[in-house]
């Protein structure tokens, strides 16, 4: 059930690439600023398109998940008690999770929006204990095919007035799992992401960077 979804994501990326390849500078007497403004507009337009694509992907994901549920696929993963399709239940953590499988990567704010589209009570994931970290690590590892792929996943961790905070709960981080020996208090990198190539430890990332999305519903 996940394959068509990947294909859609891939097709969207390819069409964007094809479009940017066709881009040619127009009007040789334009000032540099004019060109930059145009380029910026184009980038913003593509970002909006990406968001629309990810909305579409989210809707599709929902539909596919209900088909999966109807067919009894992924039966090792219990559905979420509130019935939200695409989320699986993890009773140990009183949570439901959704690992976004599409190739559409989003910045931190769009990732938040994507979770809300999937379910109004859903947020970006907050990793509050070592057990939860271990549990999710296995899910992420399997989610990217169990290979040492370079992937980053957004969490709800955000630096607020110099304090790392879980946006989903408003609480300061208690359990932390930062990449050793790498600074994580640089205000330019104030959204927390999980790094697959760093044993799934966390790093401060630029909030505008495109990463994968993991949503959580606290039950
Ligand atoms: C740029 O070129 C167009 C025609 O190609 C001309 O109408 C316009 O006045 C030019 N602008 C400047 C600032 O030279
Ligand atoms: C994320 O992208 C959207 C456009 O899709 C943009 O409006 C927003 O400002 C961006 N957020 C960040 C933190 O870069």
Automatic annotation (TrEMBL):
Keywords: Signal. Residues 1-23 form the signal peptide. It comes from the Eukaryota. PROSITE patterns: C_TYPE_LECTIN_2. InterPro entries: C-type_lectin-like (IPR001304), C-type_lectin-like/link_sf (IPR016186), C-type_lectin/snaclec_domain (IPR050111), CTDL_fold (IPR016187). The keyword Signal applies. Residues 96-216 form the C-type lectin domain. It holds the Pfam family Lectin_C. This is C-type lectin domain-containing protein. It comes from Ridgeia piscesae.
């Amino acid at each position: 059930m996940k394959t068509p979804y990947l294909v859609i994501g891939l097709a969207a990326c390819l069409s964007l690439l094809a479009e940017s390849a066709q881009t040619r500078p127009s009007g040789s007497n334009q000032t540099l600023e004019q060109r930059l403004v145009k380029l910026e507009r184009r980038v913003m337009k593509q970002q909006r398109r990406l968001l629309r694509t990810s909305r579409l992907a989210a809707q599709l994901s929902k539909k596919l998940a209900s088909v999966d549920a109807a067919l009894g696929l992924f039966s090792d993963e219990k559905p979420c008690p509130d019935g939200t399709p695409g989320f699986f239940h993890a009773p140990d953590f009183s949570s439901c999770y959704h690992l976004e499988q599409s190739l559409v990567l989003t910045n931190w704010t769009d990732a938040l929006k994507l979770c809300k589209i999937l379910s109004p009570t859903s947020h970006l994931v907050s990793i509050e204990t070592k057990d939860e970290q271990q549990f999710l690590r296995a899910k992420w590892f399997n989610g990217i095919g169990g290979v040492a792929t370079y992937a980053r996943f957004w969490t709800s961790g955000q630096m607020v007035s110099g304090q790392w905070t879980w946006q989903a709960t408003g609480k300061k981080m208690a359990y932390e799992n930062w990449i050793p020996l790498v600074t994580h208090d640089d205000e330019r990198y104030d959204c927390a992401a999980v790094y697959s190539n760093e044993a799934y430890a966390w790093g401060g990332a630029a909030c505008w960077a495109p990463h994968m999305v993991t949503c959580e519903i606290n039950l």
